[in-house]
Amino acid sequence: MELDNTKETNGSTPRKRENGLHLRPVSPEASGVGLPYAPVDWPSKGDVWTWKVGRRVAITGHFLDRYLYLPKRLHKLDNIGKKRAFASKLSVERYIRVAFPDADINAFFASFSWKIPAKKHSLTNVARAFIVAPSEERDEVSVDDPQFDGLACKAGNKKCNSLFSEAESCSLVPLLCDLCCSEPRFCRDCCCILCSKTIDLKYGGYSYIRCEAMVEGCICGHVAHLNCALRSYMAGTVGGSIQLDAEYYCRRCDAKTSLVPHVTTLLKTCESIDSRDEIEKILNIGVCTLRGSQRNDARGLLNRIESTITELKRGTSLEDIWKVKESDSAISTGVLHNGNVELEPTNHQDSICSNPCMVSVLSISSDYHSECLKLDYEIDQVLQALRKAQESEYKIAEERLFAQKNYLRNLYQQLDKERSELTHRAAGTDADALLNAILNRVDQVRQEVMKLKEMEEVANGFGRTPKGTLKEHFGLEIED
After folding, report:
1. Which entry of 87, 238, 298, 473 is 20 to 30 Å from 46 by CA?
2. CA-to-CA distance for 120 and 25, rounded, in angstroms?
3. CA–CA distance, 434 with 348 (Å, rounded to integer)
């Protein structure tokens, strides 16, 4: 790559030459058509691609977020409702390999510059937010290495997640967002999608939730304050069309995320906090998040949090609140091991061990919270199994009842047809035979109606329906 030392009067950095192209630095959120940042006359003459950049600038001086858009002709051929954009070279390559399997990928990317340089004032505005590799790592990391891109937060937040976790998440392509992310000073990594204010990473970031849903191979990544989501009825337990049960609903991608793991982590975080006021503040968010949930695991967790808040208000010491109450399970100087009580030898050990009732009591797990959660899980499994069994029984009943109804309808139609024929026939042998057939048909209809009445007894449940009815009409054999 060569540098064009032509003086710039617009405050931009010197223009660069790449493959004979003059790379003109551009401003954040700029866009354009064709060269040098998008192909022209590809795959056919007259096909011109368009490009656009975001606001994040890498330490190398080029934009980290850049997008490539299909030409109008290809857009129409794809029959896509909205303009199709590619946010990475990999997504472009995948598209070309599928749409144009014989195309030369290397020649395609060589026809334009993927990297787009930023204007000088753009670099100045974000220079302070660049990540600089430690001195011991600088010799090993190249500035052109795609795994190392110094980033700048659009919101100017020096504690933005993108400044610390980008190296870990570089393999995850962010979901293209032309809504909130197109707004100035909005950063998807640290700005609440509901109020646009930055999130707080204090105490492990308990106060916000991140949507990690994968949408078309891209990660959503938008964040929201839990309080904002709760006030907006996008978190917790919400009825109506949204139907949330201890969940978070992402306004950007419509994905739902369970909040039980988040609140579990929240409760664990409180154990390392010394301020009783902060603990109560955090736990109150957990209560608001779980209140009203029908999930047994959420209700069990809610009980634990409410019990902790009660102990806090009583003035119980934090040490006593968080520690496992061994005195509740050990009668003597017991110690816990894998949730069970083991007694140290005492003068009364023999008498204790010789008492079967005492041994039985001491063998019970002392962690009643864990035991309650296990019971909640077991009950959930039983209820789910019951629901599946009831759904299966309902399908069997529905199928057999409608089959009987259709059979009766055919009999009624046949009876009407035979009655009509009888009215048009003169007296004689044929008329008498037809009359007998009609009388037999009437008896058949009566029998099938009685059969349907017997089948309708399943309305009380299969368990209360006579076994003979279930076997004869539904093909079910119930063992005694």
Report:
1. 87
2. 8
3. 98
